[in-house]
Design a protein that fits this description.
single chain, about 240 residues, alpha/beta, UDP-N-acetylmuramoyl-L-alanine:D-glutamate ligase, eight-stranded mixed beta sheet, four-stranded mixed beta sheet, 6 helices, about 25% helix
């Protein structure tokens, strides 16, 4: 199975430390760093999850390094601050017309950092010979009418629901956190687990959804599988793959 991912990537860095007191100059916690971890994030994390599921995955992404730094209290696991550096990137310049035929599915993982414009995305939909899936932070509209399925989270749905046509609503798969996922009015629940970190869980859900759909062509089976995979990663610290 070969899947192509197109989208913006970053480096996710987590700095863990101890918080023992409040700053005397302002009512904020004082973090003493102890150790850090980092891994590829955003579209790169989708690829990482696909590969962990046994998929051959290629990535077209930005060259600029976007860095997301999260400061975490080691004892509680609570994030106290996130710092984003170089949060924008240049528009995609690659001609993809002659490579789409190699893939069983294409994923547009659009974090809206400047890499993909709606014109680019519309062009890719027209070129694709295989199922093409969208996960975008943009407001949805006519530009995404031809996608097979569109995955968004509950907050994104609330931001874009005023723009949704009947056609778009039928394509939506909405992730609703501890309540599971929704598609065409049907709720797909998840098991109750101890959540340590939700960072990157949407990437895991998307990768698992597409992988299973390529195998089965059954979107309900695919949502159930994606729920199971996302439930596994939220029990881990940081942005984790399967």
């Amino acid at each position: 199975m070969n899947i192509l991912v197109i989208g913006d990537s970053c480096v996710d860095k987590f700095i863990y430390g101890d918080i023992e007191r409040i700053c005397p100059e302002a009512p904020v916690p004082v973090l003493q760093p102890r150790y850090s971890t980092q891994n590829p994030g955003m579209a790169s994390n989708v690829v990482k999850n696909l590969e962990s599921l046994g998929v051959i995955a290629d990535l077209i992404t930005n060259k600029e390094q976007i860095l997301k730094i999260r400061y975490i209290d080691d004892k509680s696991g609570q994030m106290v601050m996130r710092l984003d550096e170089n949060d924008r990137c240049e528009r995609i310049l690659i001609d993809v017309q002659n490579i789409f035929h190699k893939y069983d599915a294409i994923i547009i993982s659009d974090y809206n950092k400047g890499f993909l414009h709606t014109d680019d995305i519309e062009e890719y939909i027209q070129l694709a010979q295989c199922p093409i899936f969208l996960d975008s932070k943009k407001i949805l509209g006519e530009w995404c009418n031809e996608f097979r399925f569109i995955k968004i989270n509950n907050r994104e749905y609330e931001s874009t629901k005023r723009t949704l046509t009947k056609n778009l609503k039928e394509k939506l798969i909405i992730t609703r956190g501890p309540y599971g996922s929704e598609h065409e009015g049907e709720l797909f629940p998840v098991s109750s687990v101890e959540v340590k970190d939700t960072s990157g869980a949407g990437d895991t859900f998307l990768a698992a959804l597409v992988k299973k759909y390529v195998e089965t062509k059954d979107i309900k089976q695919s949502i159930v599988f994606a729920n199971e995979c996302a439930t596994l990663v939220v029990q881990k610290r940081g942005v984790s793959a399967l």
